[in-house]
Design brief:
The structure holds four protein chains of four kinds. By secondary structure, chain B is mainly alpha-helical. Chain B is built from 19 helices and two strands. In chain B, a hairpin with a 4-residue loop joins strand 1 and strand 2. In chain B, helix 11 runs parallel beside helix 17 and helix 16 packs parallel to helix 18. Chain C has two domains: 85 residues, Four Helix Bundle (Hemerythrin (Met), subunit A) (Up-down Bundle); 43 residues, no CATH class. Chain C is built from six helices and no strands. By secondary structure, chain D is mainly alpha-helical. Chain D has one domain: Helix Hairpins (Orthogonal Bundle), CATH 1.10.287.3510. Chain D has three helices and no strands. Classes of the chains: A mainly alpha, B mainly alpha, C mainly alpha, D mainly alpha. Chains A and C meet through helix 26 of A and helix 4 of C.
Chain lengths: 644, 509, 170, 103
């Protein structure tokens, strides 16, 4: 494959960013919007060409059927030492091709959708510029050939996410949310960075291909070094995973994602549901062969994922802001993917169940991107219609917005794991992998899946419930065409994506592999999901006192769930009370009063001393005479006494 | 004498001084300043090109364009010049900042005197970077420091007399240490009976400073330059000084003068006394490591824009000295990159703060807000500067910091695994933490100053940047982005001649 | 062995010097101080006569007692009211003065009395006559004082001019 | 009894000390000048005494005194001119208050 197409995939969004960022102010909204869509559309076509070529062209398949990892180009960007070199390149392999498709699809749809959603907003051009910047960064991230390139683009997506969350910069909440998102992920990136440093010290390379091909040598290179009881490699991998936890909003670094919903809804769909937040999963998947080396690292991935999944699902059951519910559902679903990666290994440097977890994770990443984007865009349409994020302001919308309603329903069914929608297939693979790893994990994840179905349908029924608030003369209606097309398209994808033979495209060792549905697991999960949906329907479809009763029965639990287990308050306490008031302020005081005070006191002492000495030079001759005489006499007296 | 290209770095500013003295109105003064600084940029680019050409041709000398003219024979003082990649990078940086600074002081009061002092200051700066004779180096160093007093004391704002005095006295205090160190080096610069010399290249070649003396002279010189490099606990001149200084002076001071400190620490202290550097670096590592996080923490609570930026400079310049002390090729390359990067972005910061202050007449972030709606251009520039400062890839801060961290970590791990203690490692990780704290204070300022609703309705009438302000900021932004996007060019430029020097340092390990 | 007369004279003279010196600096009336100074100067002149320097004694009386004292008196009359007493000394000032002068007296007196051998009588010597003095002043050879003489002349001239310039009314 | 050098030196010393005392303690400029004259006179006397007792054949001491008297006269004249001028300007010749020219 020539380098032109891959290069253009990266260059076009970058160019669009620069063009819209610099010249955008002079453009009309329409021109800027269509330019953005055109740029992204071109990228979409190119990315599909590249990805499909990769999947279907025999050139990229070895004799054994293994898909070949290809570095299309790799340009040295910064050479630290002979071995440690940051290159900017384009790595084409099953997961990067998959992500190319996901990113460009969702990004293009969001570009299109925003034409309607953001119409007339101040800073429309800026919005498109940032979208292009994000697309560029995200594409750069997934095609990274080395871990440092990934880190670079990792930071760039963080920054573009910051800019987009803070798009409504006149709102305090948006500014605070963007700041929070950036700082929390920055904190995680610190771990990522140190992890990279540790890993690269031993392996003496940043290169993914070197790291992941026959990665047993990486383990050997650490020479069994340990630190605080864990092997150095575990430390490195866990630290790198910390970066992933930050971006993918795993507990306890998840707090930024719900707040990030302050950004425009299409942005939430693109960044905070479909693409950027799965970067952590992608990172672990990319490093998967290395993670295989350390059982404890994968264990941590799995456990963090499992805990987060459950936690997020619980919280999602009690939120009233529809975007918040979707945000927590995103956290929960990403945690599914994490779990899936974590359970893909049995810890002997080998994978269990043919690496089912890896494939399932990637599969779920794909399907989740589609249906979650659909849900967010649907939510955007609802918000666009009623101008509120709060479900209490909604109701009876199925009458006014049929298209939105049906597409939203498809999304809900997909996420709930009802066949034949896409979520069923991918989630089922994950559950299989979990059961294979440990039955407890399987059951646990099944429960979470049931909760998913419950809260999604709670949301659905609350939004589209029968009683309707007073909309006045401004009745809601289905969104305009640019917003409609993405909804319908994504709904269609969510219906059929499950039938893609995913194992043929993406597996951990890039060997094609046939998916088998385990009937027992499939049946049980579907049954559980249907039960949960029925429960949700019973509780929320019509007016029912049960939710209130349950709330009153378990006030503490409800309160904790509703307040997201007070994580935000805890972080507030740590950052403001401890770090800001307990470290920064005393340090600043120390600097001004102790350090600077010392310096000033040198000056003050000198000054005082001079004021003491200066009056001796009084200008009074008599004083001079006195001092002179005394001095002379002392000298003379000494001379007389001693010498003569 | 005039066939050597380097001498023109001093000649051009001197000619500018002469022309400025003849100027009668503001237009002529501006013309002289702009043409002169453009000339300096052109000169540094020409030097760079010639240098690269000679390197490409395989010249292996540690310094090029070396020349020496006797100045005072009895003490063997020469005007000796010579440059390597580092000096050229610094010359480039200085000329760009002088250029941007000229535009930033477009409407200064009493322009003639102001520019006279400013250009005199740049004589010192350029002279310092081209010198390889310690005495002339020191002389130019002083020439660069003294105008500072007047520039702050006369054109400053706020508590300017105090600040000017404090800055000058503290830096002079540093100079006193430095002078002791330099004279000490001079008296041990030759083996028994040889001709004493101030020339750095010869001193390095002779390598004759006795070990005991090194452990005395190294701290002297390092602290002497370290004061200018804002090393903890000698950094307190920086917040006050910067807060009171006029825009262009802040730019030049933070952008270039503080680099004199880092450059001097490397060129004199470490270059000539590697053994002591290796043995005593731990003391200064602790101090500079503290600088890095301490400055960042302090910046988190300040509400005056210039104070925030000054503390951020303490943090970033601390990183420079920190990396130099790692005695690791990568880290030291990173240190020089950080000097370039910090010079440009902090100059940008100070330029923007000056422009905002010139409009709102306040630097308190609590009294401003929503600037993005009022002056979008300046605000966008501020965001870019902030992003550069917190290390966004594609801008200069990232490459510099990453180079430093990678290098330091390598050095630290090597030390740790060799059983030399974990000090370097621990402080590297502490220094890494600064990227988070930096993000905190930068975003805090950006959030409060630029975003949010407009705080003061009177500010709504303010205008956005004028053309000269745009020119000044755009120049700096382009440079910041250039380093951030094409770091390997600078990396190679610095690294190329760095290697022999570093090898000599590491060779004695 | 000196004559009894000269011893009596010496006693009177030295007592005059001591008493009037003390009085000159302790009296609070300035005009009296000038008068006491006059007596001291006269006594000094007598000492010069006793030591056979008649010319010097004459100069002392003419210039000091006659010239300078008159100047003093004029100045005093010009600048202070007659009968006006200066304010009494503060104890601090007196203490300073006493410390300095007593210390001076002690150190110098001790070294004179205990350490220096000045207890010989005056050797016989002729009184230098006027011719000798005049020749010495105006000669340039050994023991010639023409140069200082001229210098003093110039100095005096400068003083005259200076006095006029300083004191002249503007 | 013989009149020895010390007998003349002691009164001269006392005169000097008085002059010193007066110079330090008096505030009136003329009084200070008077004290100064006392000291000068004591010194003159010493020159003469030493000349007479130690080097009787020579005239150095005498000439020194002679010139010193001349200089003293000149100096007094000038000083008094200044004092009068100061008095004219400020109606005061107290040294404590005459510090306008100090700074």
């Amino acid at each position: 494959m020539g380098i032109t197409l891959p290069l253009l995939i990266l260059a076009i969004p970058l160019f669009m960013f620069l063009l819209l960022g610099i010249a955008g102010v002079k453009m009309s909204h329409k021109l800027a919007g269509w330019l953005g869509c055109l740029g992204m559309g071109t990228t979409l076509v190119l990315a599909y060409t590249v990805a499909l070529t990769y999947y279907f062209c025999p050139e990229f398949t070895a004799e054994t059927g293994e898909r070949i990892q290809t570095i299309v180009f790799n340009q040295t960007w910064l050479a630290f030492t002979q071995n440690l070199v940051i290159s900017l390149g384009f790595l084409l392999d099953p997961i990067s091709a998959l992500m190319l498709i996901v990113i460009t699809t969702i990004s293009f749809l969001v570009h299109l959708y925003s034409l309607g959603y953001m119409e007339g907003e101040k800073g429309f051009q800026r919005y498109y510029a940032f979208l292009s910047l994000f697309s560029f960064s995200m594409l750069g991230l997934v095609v990274a050939t080395n871990i440092f390139q990934m880190y670079i683009f990792w930071e760039l997506v963080g920054a573009s996410s910051y800019l987009l969350i803070g798009f409504y910069y006149t709102k305090h909440s948006a500014v605070a949310a963007s700041k929070k998102a950036f700082i929390v992920t920055r904190f995680a990136d610190l771990g990522f960075l140190i992890g990279i440093l540790v890993l690269s010290y031993y392996s003496q390379t940043f290169d993914f291909l070197k790291l992941t091909t026959d990665s047993q040598w990486v383990l050997a290179s650490t020479q069994g070094a340990t630190f605080m009881g864990a092997s150095v490699l575990t430390w490195a991998l866990v630290l790198i995973f910390t970066g992933g936890m930050g971006k993918s909003a795993m507990m306890p670094l998840h707090i930024w994602l719900p707040d990030a919903m302050e950004g425009p809804t299409p942005v939430s769909a693109l960044i905070h549901a479909a693409t950027m937040v799965v970067a952590g999963v992608f990172l672990v998947a990319r490093m998967f062969p290395v993670y295989l080396l350390e059982e404890s690292a994968t264990m941590i991935v799995a456990v963090v994922g499992a805990v987060t999944a459950f936690y997020a699902a619980m919280v999602a059951c009690t939120q009233i802001d529809i975007k918040r519910v979707l945000a927590f559902s995103t956290i929960s679903q990403i945690a599914f993917m994490m779990v899936s990666l974590g359970v893909a290994s049995n810890g002997n440097g080998d994978v269990c169940h043919h690496g089912l977890g890896y494939m399932a994770s990637m599969f779920h990443m794909f399907t989740h991107a589609m249906f979650k984007a659909l849900l967010f865009l649907g939510a955007g349409a609802l918000i666009h219609a009623v101008h509120s994020n709060d479900y209490t302001a909604m109701g009876g919308l199925s009458r006014y917005m049929p298209v939105t309603r049906w597409t939203f329903l498809i999304g809900c069914l997909a996420i709930a794991g009802i066949p034949p929608f896409s979520g069923f297939f991918s989630k089922d693979e994950i559950l299989s992998a979990a059961y294979a790893w440990s039955p407890f994990m399987g059951v646990w994840m099944t429960i979470v899946a049931a909760m998913t179905a419950f809260y999604m349908f709670r949301l659905y029924f609350l939004i589209f419930r029968w009683d309707e608030p007073d909309y006045g003369h401004h009745t809601p209606h289905d969104p305009p065409l640019p917003m409609m097309i993405p909804l319908v398209f994504l709904a269609a994808v969510s219906c059929v994506a499950g039938f893609i033979p995913f194992g043929h495209f993406v597996t951990w060792n890039r060997m094609p592999y046939d998916i088998h549905l385990d009937p027992w697991i499939a049946c049980s999960s579907v049954a559980v999901a249907i039960c949960a949906i029925c429960l949700a329907a019973y509780m929320y479809r019509t007016k029912n006192p049960l939710p209130e009763k349950m709330k009153n029965a378990m006030p503490v639990l409800w309160d904790w769930c509703h307040h997201r287990f007070y994580w935000d308050e805890l972080y507030m306490f740590i950052t403001h009370k401890i770090i800001f008031n307990g470290v920064c302020r005393p340090l600043a005081w120390f600097d001004r009063h102790i350090i600077d005070g010392t310096m000033d006191s040198f000056a003050a002492v000198t000054n005082k001393l001079s004021r003491v000495i200066a009056p001796l030079q009084s200008g009074q001759v008599q004083m001079y005479v006195f001092v002179y005489i005394i001095g002379a006499l002392l000298l003379g007296g000494i001379t007389v006494l001693c010498l003569i | 004498m005039f066939e050597n290209i380097l001498i023109y770095f001093v000649v051009i500013p001197l000619v500018m001084l002469g022309l400025l003295a003849l100027c009668r109105d503001i237009k002529q003064i501006r013309a002289v300043a702009v043409v002169g600084s453009l000339g300096l940029i052109a000169l540094s680019v020409v030097t760079l090109v010639q240098y690269l050409g000679m390197r490409a041709a395989g010249v292996e000398d540690p310094m090029l364009f070396v020349d020496s003219w006797t100045w005072f024979a009895p003490l063997n003082i020469h005007l000796a010049v010579g440059v390597d990649g580092i000096s050229i990078a610094m010359l480039l940086l200085s000329s760009i900042i002088v250029f941007a600074g000229s535009f930033a002081s477009w409407t200064i009061k009493e322009p003639k005197a102001f520019f006279l002092w400013l250009i005199l200051l740049s004589v010192g700066v350029f002279g310092f970077f081209i010198s390889i004779d310690m005495f002339t180096m020191f002389m130019f160093y002083e020439v660069a420091l003294i105008p500072m007093y007047l520039l702050i004391g006369v054109w400053g704002s706020g508590n300017k007399n105090y600040s000017a005095m404090k800055l000058t006295l503290m830096l002079m205090g540093g100079s006193a240490f430095l002078m002791m160190g330099l004279i000490g080096i001079y008296y041990h610069s030759a083996p028994e009976g040889g001709q004493l010399t101030w020339n750095l290249l010869e001193i390095v070649k002779n390598a004759s400073i006795p070990h005991g003396w090194q452990s005395f002279l190294f701290p002297m010189t390092f602290v002497g330059f370290g004061v200018l490099g804002a090393m903890f606990p000698f950094h307190t001149w920086s917040p006050d000084g910067h807060a009171s200084a006029p825009t262009a002076v802040s730019m030049l001071h933070a952008g270039v003068l503080m680099k004199l400190g880092g450059y001097g620490c490397f060129r004199v202290a470490i270059y000539t006394m590697p053994q002591a550097a290796h043995e005593l670096s731990w003391i200064f590592l602790i101090l500079t490591g503290i600088s890095v996080v301490y400055g960042a923490f302090c910046a988190c609570v300040k509400t005056d824009l210039k104070y925030i930026n000054a503390y951020s400079s303490v943090s970033h310049c601390g990183l420079v000295l920190f990396a130099i002390l790692m005695l690791n090729e990568t880290a030291m390359t990173g240190a020089i990159m950080q000097m370039l990067s910090h010079g440009l972005m902090t100059a940008l910061f100070f330029a923007l703060i000056g422009m905002i202050y010139g409009r709102t007449h306040t630097r308190e972030i609590t009294q401003m807000g929503g600037m993005m709606q009022i002056m979008p251009y300046l605000s966008v520039c501020y965001v870019i500067a902030g992003m550069a400062s917190l290390g966004l890839p594609g801008l200069s801060g990232f490459v510099a910091e990453m180079t430093i961290f990678v290098g330091s970590f390598q050095a630290g791990m090597t030390d740790y695994l060799a059983g030399h203690g974990s000090l370097r490692l621990v402080f590297t990780i502490i220094a890494c933490c600064s990227i988070v704290i930096t993000a905190v204070y930068i975003l805090r300022v950006v959030g409060k100053l630029l975003f949010g609703p407009v705080h003061d309705e009177h500010h709504r009438t303010l205008t956005d940047a004028t053309w000269w302000e745009r020119l000044s900021t755009v120049t700096l932004i382009i440079c910041v982005a250039a380093i951030g996007c094409f770091p390997n060019f600078f990396n190679n430029l610095i690294n190329f001649t760095f290697k022999p020097a570093i090898f000599s340092v590491l060779g004695m390990n | 062995m000196d004559s009894v007369g000269s011893i009596i004279l010496y006693t009177i003279v030295s007592l005059t010097i001591v008493i009037f010196s003390v009085l000159a600096v302790t009296t609070r009336k300035i005009l009296r101080a000038a008068t006491y100074l006059l007596f001291t100067l006269f006594a000094t002149a007598v000492v010069y006569f006793m030591l056979d320097y008649q010319f010097l004694g004459a100069v002392q009386i003419a210039v000091y007692a006659g010239g300078i004292l008159v100047l003093f008196v004029f100045a005093i009359l010009l600048t202070s009211h007659p009968g006006h007493s200066s304010e009494p000394l503060t104890s601090k000032r007196r203490a300073l003065g006493l410390i300095a002068s007593v210390l001076m007296l002690g150190v110098t007196g001790y070294s004179l009395l205990a350490r220096c051998n000045f207890f010989n009588a005056a050797p016989e010597a002729a009184n230098p006559d006027m011719q000798q003095i005049g020749t010495a002043i105006l000669s340039t050879g050994d023991n010639g004082y023409l140069l200082p003489f001229e210098a003093i002349s110039v100095l005096l001239l400068a003083c005259i001019i200076g006095g006029i310039v300083v004191a002249r009314k503007r | 009894m013989e009149l020895k050098a010390i007998y003349f030196l002691i009164p001269s010393l006392i005169m000097f000390c008085c002059g010193l005392f007066g110079f330090i303690t008096r505030r009136n400029m003329i009084a200070m000048l008077i004290s100064l004259e006392l000291m000068l006179n004591a010194v003159d006397m010493n020159f003469v005494i030493f000349n007479r007792f130690l080097f009787p054949g020579q005239l150095e001491g005498m000439f020194f005194t002679l010139f010193a008297i001349a200089i003293a006269a000149a100096e007094t004249a000038l000083a008094i001119a200044i004092i009068i001028n100061v008095f004219r300007a400020s109606h005061n010749i107290d040294v404590r208050t005459l510090n306008e020219m100090k700074f």
